[in-house]
Amino acid sequence: MKLLPNNVLISKAKRIVIKVGSALLVDESTGTLHSTWLNSLCQDMAKWKNRGQDVILVSSGAIALGRRYLQLTNDELKLEEKQAAAAAGMVRLAHAYQEELGQHDISVAQILLTLDDSENRRRYLNARSTVMTLLSVGAVPLINENDTIAT
């Protein structure tokens, strides 16, 4: 069996799902976005979209962005503080992706999910339908756990 290089595998894929963790996206010491890295990621996504590939983005980072914005400086946040940070940070996270991808005329649509959404058949089908519709109109679904209620 011959293994193909990653770039060949990606170029042949119909759909690309990207998972971005907080550590890649947010500078832990300043609480700010790694904007150069984000720009590079969005350029890659634009390249894939231009080739006709579907792109789905699963991104963490809302709590990390929101904690600095709300000036929550404790090392260990209480549950309510994490939820508040997630609420404030998700707005900033979605905006950052929209700003970067918007430069390539790519729309971003946010989908916040909980474990219940994957376990309840009707909610799962609704979420799947939303993702498929977004892909069909050329948008990039930005998926994250709804940490304001799930953390």
From TrEMBL:
SUPFAM superfamilies: Carbamate kinase-like. GO terms for molecular function: ATP binding; glutamate 5-kinase activity. Keywords: ATP-binding, Kinase, Nucleotide-binding, Transferase. One of its GO terms (cellular component) is cytosol. Residues 14-149 form the Aspartate/glutamate/uridylate kinase domain. InterPro entries: AceGlu_kinase-like_sf, Asp/Glu/Uridylate_kinase, Glu/AcGlu_kinase. Transmembrane segments: none annotated. It comes from marine metagenome. This is Aspartate/glutamate/uridylate kinase domain-containing protein.
